[in-house]
Amino acid sequence: MKNVEEFYILGLPIDTEIGECGFIKVKDYPDYFMDLQIVSMNKGKIIYDYTLLNKSGQLTSFIEQLNELDFFDIVTGIPDLTNAYARLFQKVFNDESILQKITKDNIEHYRSLILKMQCIKEEIVNPNPEIQRAIERSRRVKAQEAEKLTFSDMVTSTVIGSGIDYELINEWSIYRLYMTFHRISKFKNYETSTLFATVSSEKVKIENWSTHINLFEEEKHFVSQEQFNKTTGSAFSE
Fold first, then answer.
1. What is the mean predicted confidence (pLDDT) over 66-91?
2. Does the pTM of the predicted model rise above 0.85?
3. SS3 annotation, the chain
């Protein structure tokens, strides 16, 4: 199948220049969850995480080296990253030798494709560590305010909302699970709003339950240099 996001819901493998790229099924998700998290880390995120570990300064030289390297060299030079890429890429491409086809020129393309097919958002990291910490504080606050949603919650809600058996959902792709869960949520909100509109004297806004769902809509955690300076009193400039 051609790489058309509209058809990802079908769960069919995507044709690429290095082979067919498949979707992770719900039943396989626990085995590849950690690999997906590792592969979702871009160069900025990798370096930032090492910066957080560098409390004693022993990693300073290593971090400086990472800054000078291409992303491909970082992935192939750190065993934990290499192993995660190997497991995940071999799974989705069903090819034990797939890493031999990954180069400096195409690694970002196929990494992004795999992440999107499994509904994984890439975290954008600000190069300024202080600003990044402010962004993460914003994320933590919003996470505390939002209703907690686990993978188990999503699966059980989809089962109840669709009437589909657990064994059948095991064969779904992760992408299909996410899309169906959000569609059920929109439909239930539509039903509730419609019912409320029949008994309320106030005007109730009823949204179409079949409106487009964007699984990759960006969350608003951005902190500009100006905002950061006002908040912290920092004197450094952009």
1. 98
2. no
3. CCCCHHHHHHCCCEEECCEEECCCEHHHHHHHHHHHHHHCCCHHHHHHHHHHHCCCCCCHHHHHHHHHCCHHHHHHHCHHHHHHHHHHHHHHHCCCCHHHHCCCCCHHHHHHHHHHHCCCCCCCCCCCHHHHHHHHHHHHHHHHHCCCCCHHHHHHHHHHHHCCCHHHHHCCEHHHHHHHHHHHHHHHHHHHHHHHHHHCCCCCCCCCCCCCCCCCCCCCCCCCHHHHHHHHCCCCCC
